[in-house]
Amino acid sequence: MPLGRGLGALIPPRIIKKITEETLAQTGERVLEIPVDEIEPNPAQPRKNFSYEEMEELANSIRTYGIIQPLILTQITSLQGGEKGIKYQLVAGERRWRAAKILSLTSVPAIIRKVKDIEKLELTLVENIQRKDLNPMERARAFQRLISEFNLTQEEVARKIGKARATVANTLRLLNLPESVQGAIEEEKISEGHAKALLAVETPEKQKALLKRILGLGLTVRETEKMVSGRRIRKSIELDPRLLEKERELSEILGTRVKIRKMRRGGKITIETYSREELEGMIEKLLNYT
Q1: Active-site residue (options: 33, 53, 94, 278)
Q2: For residue 54, how many C-alpha atoms fall within 13 Å in the half-sphere facing its CB?
Q3: Is-catalytic flag, 54?
Q4: Is residue 144 a part of any domain in this protein?
Q5: What is the DSSP letter of 174?
Q6: What digits encode the pLDDT tens for the residues 140-189?
Q7: Could you say which of 22, 40, 162, 185 is the most buried, measured as most Cβ atoms within 10 Å of its Cβ?
Q8: Are residues 199 and 245 in the same domain?
């Protein structure tokens, strides 16, 4: 897939290029080649984590196809050696800019626009959501910035990003979770579904304790919901390689399939037979085994 996990994973590069050219023809904007070292990141960028694998994938795509979609920049004034100079700040396209730096490109294609701070954050959010979703915590913090810094309501945020108000409200609730839980969400140790289940737990202490059980037992979202509601769950623990080897040895000795299931306390060994005669023969074999 040419452009990694983003838009190009669904649309061929030639189609993206054609759409870009048609859009520029309508707006009258020009694509300029801007030096990479004259561009700085957008401080309003909600995405903070760019995985090595993700950037390598995009860099390989750019090495093959070039940068199909121009970056969007805004012009800023900076001090260089005590004198005012012109630099550019990213509005959209930080992943492409970072990939260009990995490839040691000297310049990148870009469109220069005059935008307000609110438009910068909106454009950055929309680009990230459309191409590769922010993780739930990055999304929650971005929504909170729109509300606290730009005095938007939840309904206004929802309308601007094309989401339901309930979605925005539920995402913002993640900010009420303890830092350890938020960290587990960001590191993809638990899903947003796990986090929503934890929101029903009364205190931060109980939420943190339940997080340990989720991680320790590898609970699914459904199992977590059961535990939160007070229902008991039975959870088997994944076999380690040593037990898997013993399972194989037993299967060879007994001449049939053997499954070892390790439970939280003790375990269970299942020996499969496929007829009454085979069952009786297996019983005799076990009784006479020395």
Answers
A1: 94
A2: 12
A3: no
A4: no
A5: G
A6: 888 887 787 666 788 888 888 778 889 889 999 999 999 999 999 988 88
A7: 185
A8: no
